[in-house]
């Protein structure tokens, strides 16, 4: 997910943290957060191969009883 924000975000993170080292730590934490999210979505796709999509598709497959709950919760 690299867009044009990669050119403007470092300056705001550096000004918000006030330190180059702390801003690098923040970027590293962001990387590990994204990597852990990727591993969760890979596990979802491996566990539910017939239902690919967003969180709603996975939650409806895992918990089929509340039919429209997850769709309504994500829409609000």
UniProtKB/TrEMBL annotation:
Predominant cellular place of this UniProt entry's protein: membrane
Bilayer disposition of the protein: Multi-pass membrane protein
Membrane-spanning intervals of the chain: 20-42
UniProt-listed InterPro entries: AA/rel_permease1, AminoAcid_Transporter
Locations listed in the record: Membrane
Keyword field: Membrane, Transmembrane, Transmembrane helix
Gene Ontology molecular-function annotations: L-amino acid transmembrane transporter activity
Pfam families in UniProt: AA_permease_2
GO CC terms of this entry: membrane
Protein name per UniProt: Amino acid permease/ SLC12A domain-containing protein
């Amino acid at each position: 997910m690299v867009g044009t924000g990669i050119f403007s975000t470092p300056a705001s993170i550096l000004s918000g943290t006030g330190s180059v080292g702390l801003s690098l730590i923040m970027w590293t934490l962001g990387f590990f957060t994204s990597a852990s999210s990727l591993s969760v979505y890979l596990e979802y796709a491996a566990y539910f191969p017939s239902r690919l999509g967003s969180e709603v598709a996975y939650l409806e497959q895992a918990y089929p009883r509340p039919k429209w709950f997850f769709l309504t919760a994500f829409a609000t």
